[in-house]
Design brief:
Strand content of chain B: 15-25%
CATH topology of one domain in chain B: Rossmann fold
CATH architecture of the largest domain in chain A: 2-Layer Sandwich
Distance between the termini of chain A: 107 Å
Largest interface: A-B, 16 and 19 residues
Helix content of chain A: 25-40%
Strand order of the largest sheet of chain A: 1-4
Protein name (chain A): Ion-translocating oxidoreductase complex subunit B
Cofactor (chain A): [4Fe-4S] cluster
Structural class of chain B: alpha/beta
Number of strands of chain A: 8
CATH topology of the largest domain in chain A: Alpha-Beta Plaits
Family (chain A): Belongs to the 4Fe4S bacterial-type ferredoxin family. RnfB subfamily.
CATH class of the largest domain in chain A: Alpha Beta
Helix content of chain B: 25-40%
CATH architecture of one domain in chain B: 3-Layer(aba) Sandwich
Structural class of chain A: alpha+beta
Strand content of chain A: 5-15%
Keywords (chain A): 4Fe-4S, Cell membrane, Electron transport, Iron, Iron-sulfur, Membrane, Metal-binding, Repeat, Translocase, Transport
Subunit structure (chain A): The complex is composed of six subunits: RnfA, RnfB, RnfC, RnfD, RnfE and RnfG.
Oligomer: heterodimer
Mean pLDDT of chain A: 89
Distance between the termini of chain B: 46 Å
Number of helices of chain B: 14
Chain lengths: ~290, ~450
């Protein structure tokens, strides 16, 4: 009987001692963590996509809590809604961010841009672009091997088999920028989603002189500058034989689209226009 | 027992179709395009503009830094424009395009065949001259020779190794040079020995070129300090580090240059170019190019001016065969498939290989079964299958630990892989990325 008693008492004593040590240790080595970090993390979408520039949502939450001014931090996945909730928790001001979307700036489909050779190496755009200038005469355009599609965590991209170009699914894209980083040719850009998803962009990144670019691809930007001349808002600049539309300045008037001789400027989600001359007439009337 | 390097290596079929063909001088093209980046290092800066009249041998672009090289006009005529041209990689690079008119050389270039044996310049003057004449490594790596000949302070060169291995299948340009310009080669070696201040030089030749070994052994028997070393046939023996291992038994430490073990390696073509530059005042404006392939009518060795479109060389060798699948600049192991026939010959073009369609395609890729054939084949003692996975998964830190930067891109791994995996493709990608990371750290 006494053996049982001694055993119980010894174990209970040891247990009590361990409890005391553990309690003291936990007090001594306590790490204070702002409870708001957990609250903020709760609100974030938990996609861990890295679109904010931080390694995962937890790190972003820590940064949000730590920073005095969070106006330059943004969760592209959650957008204004989530950032509003974050601001509420932290009592800080957020900048109003306009939703963005990934835009593929190449329209070199098989018919526009004939294939001159055949690539059989490793199926990776990064490997191919490190090796050579691509299957067509345009060494700036899309390789069509899908590094961007592989990088996308939101099922927002697929390769169109017919055109050989990646397509962005507008509803799924959260503008995390993973595809932008994955593209070795800097073809994909994050641009303003635009009112009613309407946007205008130059669908070409070829910096060759006009004749060379045109020879390689029938819808290449040849840097003629017609669009820049017609733009009433100074939104278009020509650099290295390539037009670029600043989405901050662009007011979606569509004059440049009608003017472009190679159809390199694309408009998305606009209602069907009547015809080119009619647009030009209205354009002159407005002037 | 013949010497060779210790680890790895493969034995591709030799296919030296043009070994018996004498070097022919290729007629001048109508127009040449001379890229300003024909070497490793900074691009040269063009000195001429549209409409300028240039003479053969005149400097048209000046070295753009210490690791860079001058470029000279390979022809005489009028500069058509300073623009861009497609290079071997399919990217457009700045180039000087010249319309050929006659063939008027600069007066101070000695064009006679007379052998000039006496070396009048001092070591330093020789290195300066080599730099001025735009000599780069002609084995394919195109590293500026004057840089290689100026060892960093504190390092002393003990042995000069002349690379006459030509381990790439099909290529015969160095082989022909050794046979046809043997005396010039020996003088070239003497010049390099003087520049480096060494008294020992070894010419390494694989024993599939017995005629070259015989001829050079005869010539060097009278020369003190120059030896010929026959080597066992094994790819990639022409790699600098492999050749040093084969001849001296020393291994260059990881990430270090050959000078670390007291060796400097120069290619046969470079040595002959050094002879011409120093003794004849002739800049590097032409080179021997092998044009070959299973279906080429007359596999040949041409002496072609830099900037000649490859189309013209193929035409001179009997034209492009009907079922051509691929034209490779260089040999089948390390060469690059060309995207256009307008690509010009540059200082590093050792050959053109025309492959029929059936031989031009890759086999379907299967899974890696860890057979480790690539590991046994790698001459640098790396684990290619592992490096490929690491590059595929973007594990750059581990790739760096596994010495990805030591890869010499010889392609032995891809050649030997029974599953036809694109090992070198990914390793090359990884090398690029890891190299960027290392540079950004500095």
């Amino acid at each position: 009987m006494s053996i049982v008693l001694i055993t119980i008492l010894t174990l209970a004593g040891l247990g009590a001692l361990a409890a005391v040590i553990l309690y003291l240790a936990s007090q001594k080595f306590k790490v204070f963590e702002d409870p708001r970090i957990d609250q903020v993390e709760e609100v974030l979408p938990a996609a861990n996509c890295g679109g904010c520039g931080f390694p995962g949502c937890r790190a972003f939450a820590e940064a949000l809590v730590k920073a005095d001014d969070i106006s330059d931090l943004n969760c592209p996945v959650g957008g204004a809604e989530v950032m509003g909730k974050v601001a509420q928790i932290l009592g800080k001001e957020v900048a109003k961010s306009e939703p963005k979307i990934a835009v593929v700036r190449c329209n070199g489909t098989c018919e526009h841009r004939p294939r001159l050779n055949q690539y059989e190496g490793a199926p990776s755009c990064a490997a191919a672009s490190a090796l050579y200038g691509g299957e067509t005469g345009c060494s700036f355009g899309c390789y069509g091997l899908g590094d961007c599609v592989d990088a996308c965590n939101f099922d927002a991209m697929y390769m169109d088999e017919k055109t050989g170009l990646p397509v962005v699914i507008e509803d799924n894209c959260v503008a995390c920028g993973a595809c932008v980083d994955a593209c070795p040719k800097n073809i994909i850009e994050l641009r303003k989603k635009g009112p009613k998803n309407r946007r205008i962009f130059v669908s070409c990144v070829n910096e060759e002189k006009g004749a060379v670019a045109r020879k390689a691809c029938s819808v290449a930007c040849i840097g003629c500058g017609k669009c820049a001349k017609v733009c009433p808002f100074d939104a278009i600049t020509i650099k290295n034989n390539l037009a670029y539309i600043d989405d901050e300045k662009c007011r979606l008037c569509r004059k440049c689209v009608a003017e472009c001789p190679t159809n390199a400027i694309h408009e998305l989600n606009f209602p069907v226009r009547k015809n080119k001359t009619a647009v030009k007439e209205t354009a002159t009337e407005e002037k | 027992m013949l010497k060779t390097f210790k680890i790895g290596g493969v034995h591709p079929h030799e296919w030296k179709l043009s070994a018996e063909k004498q070097i022919e001088v290729l007629p001048l093209p109508k127009r040449v395009s001379v890229p300003v980046t024909q070497h490793i290092g900074a691009p040269a800066k063009p000195l001429v503009k549209k409409g300028d009249i240039v003479k053969t041998g005149q400097m048209i672009a000046a070295s753009g830094g210490f690791v860079s090289a001058n470029i000279h006009s390979p022809v005489s005529g009028k500069v058509f424009k300073v623009d861009q041209t497609v290079d071997a990689s399919g990217y457009r690079k700045p180039a000087i395009i010249i319309d050929v008119d006659g063939d008027e050389w600069l007066d101070d270039i000695d064009r006679s065949d007379k052998l000039v044996k006496e070396i009048t310049l001092s070591g330093e003057e020789i290195i300066k001259k080599i730099g001025e004449m735009g000599i780069v490594g002609m084995g394919g790596a195109t590293f500026p020779s004057h840089v290689k000949l100026s060892p960093p302070p504190g390092k002393k060169c003990e042995i000069l190794i002349i690379n006459g291995v030509e381990c790439e299948p099909y290529l015969t340009s160095d082989h022909r040079l050794m046979l046809e310009k043997s005396e010039e080669l020996i003088v070239g070696i003497r010049i390099l020995m003087k520049a480096l201040n060494v008294n020992k030089a070894v010419i390494g030749i694989e024993n599939n070129k017995p005629d070259a070994i015989k001829k050079l052994t005869e010539l060097t028997s009278k020369e003190e300090g120059i030896d010929v070393q026959p080597l066992k046939v094994k790819y990639p023996q022409g790699g600098e580090k492999q050749l040093i291992d084969a001849i001296t038994g020393r291994q260059v430490p990881s990430g270090k240059l050959p000078i670390e073990v007291g060796a400097v390696v120069q290619n046969v073509g470079t040595t002959v170019a050094v002879y011409e530059a120093v003794q004849k005042n002739k800049p590097l404006i032409e080179r021997v190019v092998t044009v070959t392939g299973p279906a080429i009518a007359q596999p040949s060795n041409f002496l072609a001016r830099i900037g000649t479109p490859i189309e013209q060389l193929i035409e001179a060798a009997g034209g492009l065969p009907q079922d051509t699948g691929k034209v490779i600049g260089g040999g089948p192991m390390m060469g690059k498939a060309l995207t256009s026939l307008e690509v010009p010959i540059t200082k590093g073009s050792s050959g053109l290989l025309v492959l029929p369609d059936e031989a031009a395609h890759r086999q379907p890729v299967k899974n890696c079964i860890r057979c480790s054939k690539c590991v046994s084949a790698c001459p640098m003692g790396l684990e290619p299958y592992l490096l490929m996975i690491e590059a595929e998964k973007e594990m750059w830190d581990r790739a760096e630990e596994d010495r990805i930067m030591d890869c010499i891109e010889c392609g032995s791994c891809s050649f030997t892989c029974p599953a036809h995996r694109p090992l070198l493709d990914y390793i090359r990608l990884g090398k690029g990325k890891v190299g960027q990371i290392i540079r950004s750290r500095q």
